[in-house]
Each structure stands twice: as structure tokens, then as C-alpha cells.
Amino acid sequence: MRLRGVRRSSNVEDRRRSGGGRVAVGGGLGGIALLVVLAIGYFAGVDVTPLLNDSTMQTSSEPRELTPQEQLAGEFAAQVLATTEQVWGQVLPEQAGIDYRPPVLVLFSGQTASPCGGASGATGPFYCPLDQQAYLDTEFFATMEQRLGAEGDFAAAYVIAHEVAHHVQNLLGILPEVEKLRQRASEVQAKALTVRLELQADCLSGVWGSHVDGILEPGDVEEALNAARMIGDDLLQKRAGRVPQPHTFTHGTSAQRSGWFARGYEAGNIAACDTFSSDDI
Fold first, then answer.
1. Each residue of 18-71: pLDDT tens digit?
2. What string of H, E and C letters represents the secondary structure of 36-75?
3. By the 8 A CB rule, do 212 and 267 touch?
4. Is position 1 within any domain?
5. This prediction's pTM
6. Does residue 2 fall inside a structural domain?
7. Looking at the domain assignment, is residue 280 inside a domain?
8. Count of domains in the chain?
9. Structural domain containing residue 34
């Protein structure tokens, strides 16, 4: 991505200086290894507790300075968020007839609080509709690239675009409607609805990608497609040593995630992202 000259969004709340850095105590997992386990648990619906029993992690509450890598990650996130504001500020009124109100992106390290519950490395990036904010531990970028095989700046941008897509779903009224349906559904049906919701967010991320004018470089779209494949439920469950269990999926398979991103990118239109009316997702 060519982000030189791209403005930084002002809708960023950076909580990383207020403590929250990870400190390993005793033996076991630490640093990137811990994040890999947590990421697999988040994306694949795997109980990672047994893998964490031998590792004690504490979170420092002392104010601290950001590392150069954290500073760069924060600047990158603010610029990518600005591109989502530009795209959805144009696309949503044109294609859905509603104004776009951008979300706030909360950057944290280790753990933080949200109206939807406590946020930590275990939750992964997520969107909270109660405060209309997206939450991101920027160390997740390193996890994706170094351990999950999702390399490239556009792969990291896709993560942010995916959470912003949940905000778009909220503005369209899709999130609250799906939540009502999930409350009346069985556990299996509820997870099936969640998969369709997540795949729609992947598709909307593709719509964003198709409207990011002038900053894409050769290979960027392939980076996003690869990232979508690397965090498919089936692949992550295999990495966790499990036989893939479709009834436990929460985000969709590698093929589904990359396929719906591609569909949104090729169409450039919200209407192409109706995963709920599609018989074959």
C-alpha cells in the first residue's frame, strides 16, 4: 500500500501508553507464541485454556513509552482507518442511501475494557456495537505475518477493514437483526448465522478494497486473499491439532473467506454481499 501522504484519522483512541504491556512470569509461552495460541483460539473457536495452563502472563499497569514498532503500527492503523472513512463516506450514501458515521478505533496492548466485555489478546480484533468502536491490539499484525502466514501491509489493513465492515453492518441494521435471530436460534443455528455475518464483513472489506483509489500496489489484493485463507476456521483448527468441525465454525472456511472478499472486491457494491440470501456460501 502506498500510504505516503495519506492522512491519519482522528477517530483513534490509543490506550497503549497507559500500561498493558505483557510480562511473562515463569515458564511456558510468551510474546508472539502466546499471541499465536490466542489468535487460533479466537478465529477457530478452539478452547486454548489447556495450552495456557503452563504459562502465566501478567499485565503491567505502569505508564510506558511506545516502542518504534508500536508507533509505526499506530500510524499505519490511523491511515488505514482514514481510507475506510473516505470510502464508506462515499459508498454508503450512494449505494444504501444512509450517511456514514465512522467508528472509533481503540488501540490497546495486553488488555482493556469495553462495554461488550473485557478485551485482551484472547479476544482478537473485534467490534463492539454498544459503543460503536473497534478494538485492536496492534501486536496482532506481527502474529499474522510471523506465525499465521498472512504477510503484507494490505493483509494487516484487511483486519482493520473487516472490523469497520462490522460497523457498516451495524449502520445498515444488519447486526441488531442478526443478534435477535441468534437469541432465538439453537447453538448450531446461531453459529451458522455468525458465519454468514463474518463472511459478509469479508465481502464488505472487499468492497472497501475496490474503492481504495491510487494506493494499491501489485500484490496487495493477493495479500488480503491470502490473509483471509490463513485465518479460515478449517485451517486454524487444523493448526490447533483438531479435525475441522464445521458446526463449530464462527468465521467460515479459508475458501469461503477469500471467496467472499474477492466477490466484494470484484463487484465494488454492497448488494453483492448478501450472504444471508445465498444458498451456497
1. 855 443 333 444 444 444 444 444 443 433 433 344 444 344 557 789 999 999
2. HHHHHHHHHCCCCHHHHCCCEEEECCCCCCCCHHHHHHHH
3. no
4. no
5. 0.84
6. no
7. no
8. 1
9. 12-273
What integer pLDDT is reported at residue 41 of this predicted model? 43
* Domain contains 281: no
DSSP string, 7-28: PPPS-EEE-GGGS--EEEESSS
Q: Which three cell numbers stand for residue 68?
A: 518504534
At residue 111, what are phi and psi to the nearest 5 degrees?
Answer: -160, 160
Neighbours of 239 (CB within 10 A): 18
Helix (H, G, I), strand (E, B) or coil at 272: helix
Share above pLDDT 90 across residues of the chain, in percent, rounded to a whole number = 63
Please list, in sequence order, all residues whose beta carbon lies within 8 angstroms of the beta carbon of residue 43, skipping any fewer than 6 positions away.
124, 231, 233, 236, 250, 251
What is the DSSP code string of 158-194?
Answer: HHHHHHHHHHHHHHTTHHHHHHHHHHHS-HHHHHHHH
Residue with cell 495456557: 52
